[in-house]
Amino acid sequence: MISWRKHYKTLLISVGLLLSASASVHAQDGDPVNGEKLFKANCTACHALDKQIVGPALGGIVAKVKAEQNLGPDWLHKWIKDNKALRASGDKYANEIFLKFNKTEMLQFPNLTDKDIDDILAYTTNPPAAPAADATAANGAAGADANSVAALEAAKNSAATSKIILTSLVVIAGLLLWLLLKLRQLVKIQQSQELTDLESSKAFSFAETYEKYRYVGTGLLTVLAIFAAYGVWNWLMWVGVYKGYKPEQPIYFSHRIHAGVNKIDCQLCHSSAKYGKVSEIPSLNVCMNCHKMIPEYKGKYIEPGKDRDFYTGEIKKLYEHVGWDSDKMSYTGKTSPVQWTRIHNMPDFVYFNHAQHVVAGEKAIIKSFNEKHPNDKIDVVCKACHGKIDTMNVVQMANDFTMGWCIECHRTTEIDMTNGYNKVYFKNLHEKLKKQYGSGAKITVSAIGGIECGKCHY
Predict the structure, then answer these.
(1) Which of 21, 107, 350, 425 is spaced 20 to 30 A from 331 at the CA atom?
(2) Which pairs with CB-CB distance under 8 Å and at least 24 residues apart come from 368-375?
(3) Where does the signal sequence lie (predicted)?
(4) At residue 414, what are phi and psi to the nearest 5 degrees?
(5) Residue 79 belongs to a domain with what CATH number?
(6) 8-17, 21-30, 413-422: which has the minimum mean pLDDT?
């Protein structure tokens, strides 16, 4: 009896150490690499390893629960699989957590096996080192996007044309200035009462030279005038055309990261593009649907000249505008609008309906574009007009958006006369066109009024 009491304290310490060691071993039995995949698939919407998001930080959670509540991984298994049932059983710690996080109920994961949960706990206990940046992404970032290259070539061509025009105008201005100076000299000579021998020879020499080369000079001036007139006309034709325009925005937003790397569908943000007349600029609450749980950038893709801290800083700007306190996970009520710079903006006198093109013309537009560009095919109708947005770090105007550009599309895009709407609505027109042009005739948008003035201007 005395011996038992003597070693009682030592025995308790040994049992505690054994339980602690067993909890650690139990967590380490899992596969942290597979646990990382499971964690990202099931947990990252509400949890991070190093900070509280919706739920608590889960880094070292096994040791933390053991130290604070003397609970092992078995309790975590119960909590993860069905925390609601665990709370209903009267579990004190489960109910304390529920109250601490404002009665925000965690999802149940009965689909996760014990091995899956062990893997997740192993990841939270000993997360694998972050891999180096994806070489493919880095290489992709280093190379210029196809749209950027095209825009650069267009800008070079435009610059070359501008230089030719400017040179022609300078030459014309120089010749005119020379003629004015000579005429001024003649006027002064004529105003003199007497002509010196030198002045007389100068006047005679100029008059003789002018008479001799009059037709050559007139021809040269005519050619230069034609070039100048063409330059002015060409300049006027490109007024309001901003192909390649990509302004700096108040908050940096990379479509390549969102739509390209993360495969976010265009309509998740531009929800009215499919069924509305215009494709609105998304409100900031749309951004917060995701970034409420993503306070910092941890992606592999990084543009040249930037780092993860740059992207995280832009997320912080978003938080400032919407009034979001990421530490308290609550809104402060202090908001301010973002002054976005609009890139695609149709003139007021032009009627354009997104729904008509995205819904009714989706298949026809994609088919027509891919036939014209077999080496640069698209899979989403948006890209036919806006370019490959999913490859753009900074969005730019990929096309001219002139009336001629639209009409050319209407003249060459074949409509689908077999779909339910066109088959019924254009039944008589279809039969008339078949008689006029033959049964195999290509019926384009222009055949159904696509180039009538009143379709776009009324």
Answers:
(1) 107
(2) 368/409, 368/412, 368/413, 368/414, 372/412
(3) 1-27
(4) -85, 130
(5) 1.10.760.10
(6) 8-17
pLDDT-derived band at 135 (thresholds 50, 70, 90) equals: very low
Q: Are residues 217 and 187 in the same domain?
A: yes
**What is the longest distance spanned by two Cα atoms in the chain?**
148
Same domain, 363 and 446: yes
Alpha-carbon span 93 to 65, nearest angstrom? 10
Same structural domain for residues 392 and 425?
Answer: yes
Number of domain units in the chain: 3
DSSP string, 118-152: HHHHHHHHSPPPPPPPPHHHHHHHHSPPHHHHHHH
The predicted pLDDT at position 350 comes to 92
> 440 and 359, same structural domain?
yes
Find the distance separating the first CA and the last CA of the chain, reported in whole Å.
105
The answer to whether residue 322 is domain-embedded is: no
* Cα–Cα distance, 445 to 53 (Å, whole number): 52
The domain containing residue 178 runs over which residues? 146-237
DSSP letter at 418? T
**How far apart (Å, rounded) are the C-alpha atoms in residues 94 and 75?**
9
Angle at CA 441, nearest 5°, toward 439 and 443? 115
Which pTM value belongs to this model? Answer: 0.63
Taking Cα atoms as reference points, which of 295, 257, 254 lies closest to residue 137?
A: 257
Give the Cα separation of 230 and 222 in Å (integer).
Answer: 12
From CA 372, how far away is CA 376, in angstroms rounded? 9
Instruction: Give the mean pLDDT of 135-142.
Output: 44
The whole-angstrom distance between residue 172's C-alpha and the CA centroid of its chain comes to 46
Say how many C-beta atoms besides its own lie within 10 A of residue 262's C-beta.
12
Report the range of poorest mean pLDDT among 71-75, 383-387, 390-394, 397-401. 71-75
Q: Assign 3-class secondary structure to 318-359.
A: HHHHHCEECCCCEECCCCCCCCCCCCCCCCCCCCCCHHHHHH
Residues 119 and 193 reside in one and the same domain: no
Residue 332 located in a structural domain: no
Residue-wise pLDDT for 219-265, tens only, equals 888 888 898 888 888 888 888 888 999 999 999 999 999 999 999 99
Q: Return the pLDDT at 211.
A: 72
| Neighbour tally for 81: CB within 10 Å | 17
Q: Angle between the 284-291 and 308-322 helix axes, to the nearest 10 degrees?
A: 130
Angle at CA 265, nearest 5°, toward 264 and 268?
100
pLDDT number for residue 28: 52
